[in-house]
Amino acid sequence: MSRLGNNYLVPEDRSHYVLCAGGIGVTVMVPLAQHLAKLQKSFEVHYSVKSVSEAVFADELEEASGGKLTVHTNRDWCDTFLDAKPEKTAICICGPRGYMDAVYDAAHLKGFDIYSEDFGSDTPDRPFDVVLASSGAKLTVPAGESIARALGRRGIDVPVSCGYGICGTCTVGVLEGTIDHRDRLLADGDRDRKITLCCSRAASETITLDI
């Protein structure tokens, strides 16, 4: 077995691998593709983006896979991408929850083993309040909206890069409140006092940020 990314555990005894990356999930698939290439394993890569211009790391995946990379801008491919695959094929998925669900459902119907690492949470979104320590200003973050976007609506600019809590660009300190962590960045020692504003939320009714 090989461990890639944070929790990605993939067997090395499969006859073929299908790597499926959605958006920022490509950051996990690049080292996995390079690892499989070193092992001389048979694999292909399906990379989903909103537009081809957003396909970062496409060159790395093209090289590692020996040209077996397909970039998608819709999900029509999910209906046929597993046709005529060997019986011992492993499906490796990483990306946002909606993407993961679509690929998982297709792979599950075919009966293949599925390995995944997601950027999301099983906790339902709910509204909560954010207090800014520097001014005492308070605002409500509704369900379905990130703290970064809610702050932006109030004219408070928060730099955001990845949008999935893996780069650290939007990390700030937390002075009070409990955090619903949805990032893949912070170590245990930081998780009670830091938050990524692009994706994580408050588990308590109110959270106070060091802003």
List keywords for this structure.
211 residues; alpha/beta; Rossmann fold; Ubiquitin-like (UB roll); elongated; disordered N terminus
General description of the model:
There is one protein chain. By secondary structure, the protein is α/β, with parallel strands linked by helices. The chain has two domains: 2-119, 3-Layer(aba) Sandwich (Rossmann fold); 128-209, Ubiquitin-like (UB roll). Helices cover 19% and strands 30% of the residues. It has four helices and 14 strands. Mean pLDDT is 87; it is low at 1-7.
Would you kindly provide a brief summary of this structure?
The protein is α/β, with parallel strands linked by helices. The protein is built from 4 helices and 14 strands.
H/E series, N to C? EEEHEHEEHEEEHEEEEE
Text of the CATH class of the largest domain: Alpha Beta
User: What is the name of the CATH superfamily of the largest domain?
Assistant: Nucleotide-binding domain of ferredoxin-NADP reductase (FNR) module
Q: Give the CATH topology of the largest domain.
A: Rossmann fold
Number of strands: 14
Number of helix segments? 4
User: Over all CA atoms, what is the radius of gyration?
Assistant: 19 Å
Structural class: alpha/beta
Give the SSE map.
Elements: E1 2-4, E2 8-10, E3 16-22, H1 26-38, E4 43-48, H2 58-64, E5 69-72, E6 89-96, H3 97-110, E7 113-119, E8 128-132, E9 138-141, H4 147-153, E10 171-176, E11 179-180, E12 194-196, E13 201-202, E14 206-209
Parallel strand pairs: 3-4, 3-6, 4-5, 6-7, 8-14
Antiparallel strand pairs: 1-2, 8-9, 10-12, 10-14, 11-13
